[in-house]
Design a protein that fits this description.
- The longest helix is centred in the N-terminal third of the chain and has 27 residues, at 23-49.
- By secondary structure, the chain is mainly α.
- The radius of gyration is 18 Å and the shape is globular.
- α7 (148-159) packs antiparallel against α8 and α7 (148-159) runs parallel beside α9 (188-208).
- Helices cover 72% and strands 0% of the residues.
């Protein structure tokens, strides 16, 4: 049993090392980094030009109680991505380029819509300044549509095939969405749209990119 586990570990390490020889890994890494940089640029542009954009009405906000726990949905989203990353390293190391690519595409698409639809962030109105690190990080809260918290958690769920991990991530999808609404972290349209965006990107990736970006 110990020898079998050691063999699996050596195999995973070899696969990860071989990724650095694969051109699709570098393509996916570039797309992922472009998505991250574009996120910083898009939120900065919204902060500079639409900082005082009006807060929109939301029927679910009117129907649901306000619970001021803005940290919670951040932690839940972060934990879901940590769990997904562990799953990938343990179960799907050959799929790392593919997963990086889809998360990068999701962020690029989201960044475009952040600039296109600069809504006022409800979290700033309801929760004020709560940055854990610095006031400078408050800039990152000005991107609203669609919800990155919901979209990335749901995309992780869609990309997971192991039943145990998939069940855990499904719970996180619901928790992130619920606490985003209760804490007024995102409008309901941000959350529901993020699910659609993530699913569309997943379907597109499965059809056109998976055969190239999963290491054989």
């Amino acid at each position: 049993m110990i020898a079998k586990e050691a063999s699996k570990k050596e195999s995973r390490i070899k696969i990860i090392k071989d990724l650095f020889k694969n051109r699709f890994f570098y393509i996916s890494l570039i797309v992922f980094l472009i998505g991250f940089v574009a996120y910083l640029i898009s939120t900065m542009l919204v902060y500079q030009n639409f900082r005082n954009a009006p807060i929109l009405n939301d029927l679910l906000f009117d129907a649901l109680p306000f619970i001021p726990l803005p940290y919670l949905y951040n932690w839940l989203n972060s934990l879901s991505l940590i769990i997904f990353s562990f799953y990938v390293l343990m179960k799907k190391p050959k799929s790392i380029p593919y997963f990086l690519l889809l998360f990068g595409i999701f962020n690029i698409v989201r960044d475009f819509f952040i600039i296109l639809t600069p809504f006022g962030n409800p979290s700033i109105f309801y929760n004020g300044n709560y940055s854990m690190l610095s006031e400078r990080f408050e800039i990152l809260r000005f991107g609203v549509y669609p919800s990155g918290h919901t979209g990335t958690t749901f995309l992780a769920f869609l990309l997971t095939t192991d039943k145990k991990y998939k069940s855990i991530l499904l719970v996180f999808v619901f928790l992130v969405a619920i606490f985003l609404l209760l804490a007024r972290g995102h409008y309901s349209i941000d959350i529901f749209s993020a699910l659609i965006f993530a699913y569309a990107i997943y379907c597109f990736g499965e059809k056109y990119f998976k055969k190239h970006f999963v290491v054989k």
